[in-house]
Each structure stands twice: as C-alpha cells, then as structure tokens.
Amino acid sequence: MKAEPEHQMRLLDVQEIDSALAQLAHRARTLPETEEVKALDGRITGLGDRVLAAETALSDLDREQRKAESDVDQVRTRSDRDRKRLDAGQVSSPKELESLQSEIASLQRRQEELEEVVLGVMERREAAEAELARLRKDLEDARGEREAAEDRRSAAMIDIEGDRASQAQRRERVAAEVPDDLLALYTKLRDQYGVGAAALRYGRCEGCKLALSTAELGQIRQAEPDEVVRCEECRRILVRTTESGL
C-alpha cells in the first residue's frame, strides 16, 4: 500500500486519539463509585431484610405482651371476684371458706408469676425496639451514602462524556485527512491488536516495544517514503519519523 508520509504521520494522531478514547471507556467501566454503589446496594438490601425481620420480631413481642397482660387481667378479675365474696361474707361454710382463701392465695401467686412474664416480655420488647431503631438508622445512613456515591458517579460520567465527545470530534477531523484505504487498514489492525499504527523510534517498534533487526531496518531504509511498512513482529503499521534511527 502507498500513502503520503504526512498521511501516515496522521495515523499516529488518530491512534493517540483512539487510545485516549479507549482509556475513557475503561475509566467509565471501572469507576470506583460504581463499585461503591454496588456494595451499598448489597448493604441496603441486607439491612432492609434485617429491618423486616426486626419489625416481625417486634410484632410477635407485641402479641406476646398483649396475651401476657390479658392473662394477668383474667387472674386479677377472678381474684377480685373471690375477694368480694370473701369480704361480703357470702361464704359461711368453714370448708368452703378455706377453699376460697386457698384459691385467692393461689391466684395471687399466679398473678405474680404472670406479671413477671409481662415484665420479661416488656424488657425484650424494649431491646427489640432499640435494635429496630438502630437498624433503621443504619439503613437511612446507607441510603444517604448511596445517594452521595451516585451523585459522584454521575458527575464523573459527565466529565468522561464531555472528554469523549471532544476526542470524538477531534478524531473525526483528523481521520478525514487520512485516505480511506489507509484508514481501513489501520482500523482493521486496531480492532485486532488494540493499536493499529505505531511510530518507529530509534529502531524500535512503539507498538510491541521490540527492537527491529538490522536486516529489517535496512529494508525499511530502502523503502520508498510513501511505502506503508509493517512491523514483522506485531504486524502493526510502522510510521517513520525523524526519530526512527534510519
């Protein structure tokens, strides 16, 4: 392939721009804020599950407390009824009186036991409320952190997109100065190797970073200036410059 030396030199500008565009794309894919948002999403999901579990546990304790208090009320009501009978002198039989007094004492012990149960449930409920409040606070904080991370990611993406648009416009202008056949070859090689054109600098290919042999340099030295030469090792287009060492 033949191409004017200045057109070949323009390939290095195109390659520089393409490398910058590739770096911008890589930066967009690997923004630390993206991983931060992902991690926070996982944390938020986990905290949400824990909040739900804590709410369920608190609801169960509410039911348990209501039942325990109801049991206390039932025993208290029965005890009060028996005391009223005793105080009113409605029981005349000594045996029945003894039985009623025994039942009142038994109900008193049962009431005390049930009141201890209520206190225990209330203590557990208080601890459950504190745990639920802590989890809700952690969830709120995590959501705030995610929103801040998302804002930072959006700002970074806006900057990247601005740079990408600027580089894309510049590439369009520079690529328009390269003949179609030369640009097509460059594009094919870039798609294959990531870099389509590289400078020959001091006898070394800047694409694969390998030094050319004396024979290879001799062949390039003898080639016409408009001859498009390729690196024997990496097959990229070699662009001759004033620093080629020929």
TrEMBL record:
Cited InterPro entries: CT398_CC_hairpin (IPR056003), Oxidative_Scav/Glycosyltrans (IPR052376), Zf-RING_7 (IPR003743)
C4-type zinc ribbon domain boundaries: 204-238
PANTHER family the record matches: PHOSPHOLIPASE C-BETA-2-RELATED, SCAVENGER RECEPTOR CLASS A MEMBER 3
Gene3D superfamilies membership: 1.10.287.1490
Region ranges (Disordered): 63-99
Highest rank taxon of the organism: Bacteria
Domain CT398-like coiled coil hairpin: 14-194
High-level lineage: Bacteria, Bacillati, Actinomycetota, Actinomycetes, Streptosporangiales
Naturally occurring in which organism (per UniProt): Nocardiopsis suaedae
Identification of the protein by name: C4-type zinc ribbon domain-containing protein
Comp. bias intervals (Basic and acidic residues): 63-87
